């Protein structure tokens, strides 16, 4: 059975141009820091960080701290709808 509230949150997260750009970048490059992502999508670091936080809350991405840097990557476990959207990017 479909979890409607979870699906709604996933779709809201995916329905944003900047977040889709972030996901496309992570799909192409594997993992990146907030600094690298902000340069690629031409957005301030603070705004990029907020987008990453929202995406991470839905489980679409994960993060790993290495030294002073936090690296973001796509989660290995994805909902079908997320897999489908990622396949379109």
The domain count comes to 1
Named at the architecture level, the CATH assignment is: Orthogonal Bundle
- Tally of alpha and pi helices: 5
Main pleated-sheet profile: 3 strands, antiparallel
What does the overall shape look like? globular
The fourth-level CATH homologous superfamily is Winged helix-like DNA-binding domain superfamily/Winged helix DNA-binding domain
Q: How many strand units?
A: 3
Order of helices and strands: HHEHHEEH
Radius of gyration: 13 Å
- End-to-end gap: 27 Å
Please give the order of strands in the largest beta sheet. 1-3-2
Average predicted confidence as pLDDT: 93
Estimated helix fraction: 55-70%
Oligomeric assembly: single chain
Quick one: CATH class? Answer: Mainly Alpha
Judged by helices, strands and strand pairing, the structural class is alpha+beta
CATH topology descriptor: Arc Repressor Mutant, subunit A
What ranges have pLDDT less than 50 throughout 5 or more consecutive residues?
none
> Strand content of the residues, in percent?
15-25%
């Amino acid at each position: 059975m479909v979890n409607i509230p979870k699906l709604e949150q996933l779709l809201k997260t995916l329905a944003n141009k900047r977040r889709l750009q972030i996901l496309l970048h992570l799909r192409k490059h594997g993992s990146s820091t907030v600094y690298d992502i902000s340069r690629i999508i031409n957005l301030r670091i603070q705004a990029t960080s907020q987008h990453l936080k929202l995406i991470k809350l839905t489980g679409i991405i994960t993060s790993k701290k290495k030294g002073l840097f936090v690296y973001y990557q796509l989660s290995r476990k994805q909902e079908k709808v997320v897999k489908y959207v990622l396949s379109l990017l």
